[in-house]
């Protein structure tokens, strides 16, 4: 079992690195700066993390709560489940920090392909897998068109949410507060199997996209 002092030092390094990455960018943050800010020696940091990329990946896991158990949205109401999945924010109390870090993270990943692949595998794959499973269930139960490629569905659903995170939250702009509902309705208007109780907003929302 890790000693309390060791656990505390570990947390200090993660918090220091997170704040520096968000403030300066990943490229511009050195291990020396992380050691100085955290009060943990660089030698100790290197005992836990081989390099800055490994530390950054753990910071991302910490920031996004990858070790927390994620809920499974499977109520039987596909529209409600899609909206819940799109709105779900693991480690929601760190939302502001996620938004601050995201532009730096995207820039760093664009220059470092290996890191980008590791980031996607560690942080992004779980929500994608959950959404993929939901779409496959929808196809299986006859709620979504059999012709739907789940990967295309993921792109169509996540795209508007990423747009909000990357552009609107950073640069401003008008976008509906219930964006997840608009995205789900537009998606279901295109790929949902038509029923007599079709949702009233399914057609109107198409104009938004």
UniProtKB/TrEMBL annotation:
A GO term, aspect molecular function: transcription cis-regulatory region binding
UniProt feature coiled coil, ranges: none
Domain of life: Bacteria
Keywords: DNA-binding, Transcription, Transcription regulation
Pfam families to which the protein is assigned, alphabetical: TetR_C_11, TetR_N
Record carries keyword DNA-binding: yes
Keyword Membrane carried by entry: no
Domain HTH tetR-type: from-to ranges: 7-67
DNA-binding segment(s): 30-49
Protein name, per record: TetR/AcrR family transcriptional regulator
Organism: Alloacidobacterium dinghuense
